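Researcher: Good morning. I'm working through a list of sequences from a screen, and I'd like to move beyond sequence-only analysis. For each chain I'm collecting a predicted structure so we can compare shapes side by side. This is the next one on the list. No need for commentary yet; just the structure.
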Amino acid sequence: MWPTTSPVKLHGEGGGETRPRPTDHAMLARRLAAARLLSTAASSAGDAGGADTLGRRLLKLIYPKRSAVVVLRRWAEEGRTVQKYQLNRVVRELRKYGRFKHALEVCEWMRTQPEMRLLPGDHAVHLDLVAKVRGLPSAEKFFEDMPERAKAPSTCNALLHAYVQHGVRDKAEAMLAEMRNAGYLTCALPFNHMMSLYMASGELEKVPEMIKELRRYTLPDLVTYNIWLTYCSKKNSVKSAEKVFEMMTYEKVAPDWMTFSLLASIYINAGLHVKGRDALVEMEKRASRKERAAYSSLLTLYASLSDRGNLDRVWNKMRETFRKFSDTEYKCMLTSLTRVGDISAAQDVYREWESASGTRDSRIPNTILSYYIKNGMMEKAESFLGHIVEKGVKPSYSTWEIFVWGYLGNERMDKVLECLKNALSSLEKWEPNHQLAMAIFSQIEKTGDIETAEKLLVMFRDAGYVTTEMYNSVLRTYAKAEMMPLIIDERMDQDKVAMDEETRRLLRLTSKYPIGEVSTLMS
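Model: Good morning. Structure tokens for this chain:
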């Protein structure tokens, strides 16, 4: 069991309740961990031992505000040489660990050095970093300003990738057409980008069309086949997946762990557990220190089979293989354990994370909270929330949303609104969750609590999200209470929300009732 802890106060406006103090502890811990990884990566960037090298200096930059250009200038001022191949390796390592700003600064500095002859591939990397750091318009401007000789297949692919990453379908299709006209469709990469775009947008019917066009120019590669298997997974088609794998074997494209992960998932979802386990065996053969993500996938898939024995075996194998686990791996194991219903083992793993990790990432305890709440253990969830706050974890939007659903199931509307307020206040900008909003409104409708309905409408208005359906729910709440709201039309105009037939019907229905006092106050 957890240490006895009083449930955390769900901070509100008054009553002496306090908000957990914001902390940058998690961010600092993540940066320090990244710095340790990058310092070990320096050797792969051309640095040996503990020598003071340019690569080591650049890779040891921790904070984004620190400038790579300053490091480069200082190195040059010391009379030391800078080799292009070394900087390319450093950029590769920085990108690998998500340090895009510093990588971009190195690329920009290289561009100012007349003795460094930049190739189209260098421009492609630069363009990709511009898109990541400064956004798509800046990447487009970068492409336009490039010398014509640099507008080669690699740079076109980089811009196409940026369009795909930003979900700009029209521009992506236009770029593919330009590449087709220029004769640049010589490899599978641009087609893979387009298939990823169509998969993300749900346009699955476009995937076979793209594969057909790809075959007119070149042959599918490993990534193509894995995207194709993902398509089969979305279509729940075992037959298609097996046909794709046969083609892959025939064309001598070597499968990787992801290939077998996809096949295993397809088989397991279809109830073909024997074939699924065979695929997992092949997948595990390809898991390694280098292919670390494969282990997390194994955990998830064995949990989906409720195979506790192999779940423990893979976790112990990971313990023997890696010096320490990442937050992502802890979260994966916790999710797997709660999925098989072993909350006691999940608590043990959580305590291990609590002592081993310094990130205080709320996503990790959220897995335990989700289990408690989904299983109706609200008191345990409240106690555990108090425990994690005491340990320095700051509840996130997702934390509070989990509690909103829990209290909603218990019809504790005061707690629902309290947690919803905490959730919304934890974000700079809320990405509207229509399902959540309407679930709360629907619960209020049943009771005819017009005061709570009006308060909820105000909360969502303050968060920048009001819809006709919400107003209709408020009106149904008034109808349930047999009360009449005031100036609904004016309020909807102010919120730029249009009436529909249901709104007008409800206004006619409630017009025969006495005026609700809450309506006058909220108006």
